[in-house]
């Protein structure tokens, strides 16, 4: 049919397929633009995709699933309970084009705004980000979400007076205990640093 002569409508079908792909690529480009001009629908798409993680990725806390192209989890794009047709098409095209984060133009500011949890550019084992006592403290008490947040926490442990003692009396540890209720600031600062250091150099 697609190879049929134009008179039989074969050519038109090819054109429609090509045009639909071109439209989807346009969507994908806007979806993957992470600057201030990111369209509202892309934010909605992020939420929809976050709710549809693959079974293997269900251990990734839904609250920290933001964007599967910036993080190491995937939305379910085939089968029951998968994404709607438009998003499915977009994911398919992204796979076909081999979209990778390195190819995306991400400004330094945007890098700081990226979610640190399950960061796609992290060279660490994903377990680094899994739920445990310190990671839960980082999320709930320190409200650490972004690369920029991890940078701030990392800096807190870089003063001369700071020690790795649980009861360290330095200003950063004392302030952190008071402000967030964290019982082990050094462990949290150190974990934030490990996550930050695990990111590929060009990413932050
Ligand atoms: Zn300290
Ligand atoms: Zn803590």
Write the layout of secondary structure elements.
Layout: H1 10-31, H2 40-51, H3 85-97, H4 108-112, H5 133-140, H6 147-156, H7 171-180, H8 185-197
This protein binds zinc ion (ZN) (2 copies).
Task: Please characterize this protein's 3D structure.
The chain is elongated, with a radius of gyration of 22 Å. The chain is mostly helical and 204 residues long. It folds into two domains: 1-105, no CATH class; 107-204, no CATH class. The chain is built from eight helices and no strands. The N and C termini lie far apart (50 Å). The mean pLDDT is 89. It has helices at residues 10-31, 40-51, 85-97, 108-112, 133-140, 147-156, 171-180, 185-197. The chain binds zinc ion (2 copies). One zinc ion binds at residues 162, 168, 170, 172-173, 186.
Number of strands: 0
Distance between the termini: 50 Å
Distinct helical segment count: 8
Number of domains: 2
**Estimated radius of gyration:** 22 Å
Tell me the β content: under 5%
- Mean of the pLDDT scores? 89
Uncertain ranges: none
Ions, cofactors and other bound molecules: zinc ion
Mind summarizing the main beta sheet?
none
Helix fraction? Answer: 40-55%
């Amino acid at each position: 049919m697609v190879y049929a002569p134009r008179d039989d409508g074969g050519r038109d079908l090819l054109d429609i397929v090509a045009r639909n792909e071109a439209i989807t690529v346009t969507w994908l480009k806007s979806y993957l633009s992470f600057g201030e001009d990111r369209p509202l629908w892309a934010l909605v798409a992020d939420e929809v995709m976050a709710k549809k993680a693959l079974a293997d990725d269900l251990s990734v806390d839904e609250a920290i699933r933001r964007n599967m192209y910036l993080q190491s989890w995937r939305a379910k794009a085939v089968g029951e309970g998968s994404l709607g047709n438009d998003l499915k098409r977009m994911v398919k095209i992204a796979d076909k084009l081999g979209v990778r984060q390195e190819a995306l133009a991400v400004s330094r500011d945007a890098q700081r705004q990226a979610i640190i949890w399950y960061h796609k550019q992290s060279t660490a084992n994903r377990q680094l980000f899994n739920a445990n006592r310190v990671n839960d403290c980082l999320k709930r008490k320190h409200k650490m979400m972004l690369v920029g947040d991890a940078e701030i926490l990392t800096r807190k442990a870089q003063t001369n007076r700071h020690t790795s003692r649980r009861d360290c009396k330095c200003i950063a540890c004392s302030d952190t205990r008071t402000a967030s209720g964290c019982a082990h600031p050094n462990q949290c600062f150190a974990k934030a640093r490990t996550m930050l250091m695990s990111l590929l150099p060009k990413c932050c």
